[in-house]
Design brief:
- The protein is an all-beta fold.
- The protein has one domain (about 60-225).
- The protein is built from one helix and 15 strands; from the N terminus they run E-E-H-E-E-E-E-E-E-E-E-E-E-E-E-E.
- The chain has one helix spanning about 50-55, and strands at about 10-15, 20-25, 55-60, 60-70, 70-75, 80, 90-95, 105, 130-135, 140-145, 155-165, 165-175, 185-190, 205-210, 220-225.
- It has a four-stranded antiparallel β-sheet with strand order 4-5-7-8, with no helix packed on it.
- Strand 11 and strand 12 (about 165-175) form a beta hairpin.
- The radius of gyration is 19 Å and the shape is globular.
- Mean pLDDT is about 85; it is low at about 1-15.
Amino acid sequence: MWRAINSLLVVALAVWGAGPVIRFVPGSTIKLEQLVGEEDKERHQPTRSRTATRYQLEGTDLGNSFEHAGRVFFLFGDTVGRLDRALDTIATTDATDPEQGVRLDFLTSGDGPYLTIQPPGIRMGAFEVPVAGISLNGLMYVVVSTGHSMDAATDRSVLTRFSRPARFQPLRMISQLPAGRFVKMSVHSEPGPIAGSPPGGPFILIWGTGEYRKSDAIRPTPWRR
């Protein structure tokens, strides 16, 4: 249904250098549109989503996306809007072809212009953001990164279940620093079988990193559903 537009980057090892070099391949990526904000900063024209007019929302961090119930959901990090800038948001779209345009509709709650991601008992301040989402058996699950500290000693990831219109229920901790390797992650459901994995399925594949911007991506870890 939803087909991601993948950027093409070529990673080359510089023979004379001290490490890998990332080079952009001209023409490999094409801007389609700006998703968030009132005005496209490059084209100086209204965005399709008009988030300032519709939600009093100017900009967001991140943008992890996943499918659920026939729609695409976007998990956004620290958001610049009418509410506290450190709060996080969630939007959805029924667009099936990004080439034809994507209009985001932010989820709302009764006490504000947009819904914020605030599981009970889970701190969601600056640098504490949703990192992944997945749809399983008709239910939506959202992983958040919380417990942020400057020395990255207490950062951890927590699995929550989201029920509309506004309920996030914490379920379990997944990983925690300093030893944790899945504080930031990406998750994918695979019906299976997967070569090299135990027989059966379906599986959930998890790619993860530990300390922020200081750890390599860990190879996929299959969980049997």
